[in-house]
């Protein structure tokens, strides 16, 4: 596993009954996507502010937070699909 999202998918696949949440449910949790879009908006607004103030060396915390959140969610989706595909392949063999 190469990122946090993929690790989360594995944990949810193994322990979803105990956790009360499945990886598929997390993939379709639209509140998460709303939060990611808010981070993207904040990053864009920060970039506009930096350009208008000629602050080329300011922090890019909003951009980094957006990239990390998006990467985690994409890793979760990717690993969940891989796990589901493997389960289908095993069931059909």
Features:
93 residues, 82% helix, single chain, mainly alpha
Description:
By secondary structure, the chain is mainly alpha-helical. Helices cover 82% and strands 0% of the residues. Helix 3 runs antiparallel to helix 4 (61-92). The longest helix has 32 residues, at 61-92. The protein is elongated, with a radius of gyration of 17 Å. The two termini are 25 Å apart. The mean pLDDT is 87.
- From the helix content, strand content and strand pairing, which structural class follows? mainly alpha
Strand content: under 5%
| Total helical elements | 4
Mean pLDDT: 87
Contiguous runs where pLDDT drops below 50 for at least 5 residues: none
Number of E-type strands = 0
Helices and strands, in order, run as HHHH
State the major sheet: none
Q: Report how far the terminal alpha carbons are from each other.
A: 25 Å
Helix content: over 70%
Radius of gyration (Å): 17 Å
Tell me the overall shape.
Answer: elongated
């Amino acid at each position: 596993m190469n990122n946090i999202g993929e690790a989360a998918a594995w944990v949810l696949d193994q322990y979803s009954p105990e956790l009360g949440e499945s990886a598929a449910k997390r993939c379709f949790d639209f509140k998460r996507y709303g939060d990611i879009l808010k981070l993207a908006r904040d990053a864009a607004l920060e970039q506009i502010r930096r350009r208008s103030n000629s602050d080329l060396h300011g922090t890019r915390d909003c951009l980094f937070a957006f990239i990390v959140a998006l990467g985690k969610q994409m890793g979760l989706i990717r690993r969940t699909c891989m796990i589901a595909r493997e389960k289908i392949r095993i069931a059909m063999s």
